Prior knowledge:
By secondary structure, the chain is mainly alpha-helical. The chain contains six helices and four strands.
Amino acid sequence: MNSPTTACDICGATQTLSLTIHNIRHHAHNRRYCTNCVLKQHPGLFCPICFELHDDAAQLPPHHHLMCVRCPSIAHRSCAFPSSTASATPPPFFCPTCLDSNYNFINLPSRKAGTVDVRSAKVLVAAARIAAISMSKAAAAARFDAERRAREAAVARKRAKEALEHLAEVLASEQTEQNEQSGVASAGRRRGG
Ligand SMILES: [Zn+2]
Ligand SMILES: [Zn+2]
Ligand SMILES: [Zn+2]
């Protein structure tokens, strides 16, 4: 195999360290970013607490969302301050990365278990989707090598789909564990087919 080492253009993380290196279009350049750097470079596209993507930032109803005091990061109000009422003025919101400059969106999987936790799986989905959107936009914008871009966009979309499927698996296995812990018979564990 003659494949070059794939590493993040920003922090230098390698595929094994950060799980996935995303091909992404950023400031009109094709880049490779790790999951953590994809999210750090795109505040405002996703909620930093539940990791859902904001479909159209321009159309967010302002009273449902809070922008970070220091950066363009936008969180769901219900995620940032779950107990605050809609009518009350919310306290100032600081996103996780502004609170802690060493903040990592993704927790590396433990070597023992070899699995990713639910939160990290959601982070992976968000990063893969942001990468897929950026590549699709690039494909639409540049006709001259649209074909190559379209291929890259397809790969990015496939990644997003895989990340979603992975999330579903993680959630399902958590559910199974919970069932087993709560005494439900595990003998007849269903097999996916
Ligand atoms: Zn990185
Ligand atoms: Zn949220
Ligand atoms: Zn911030």
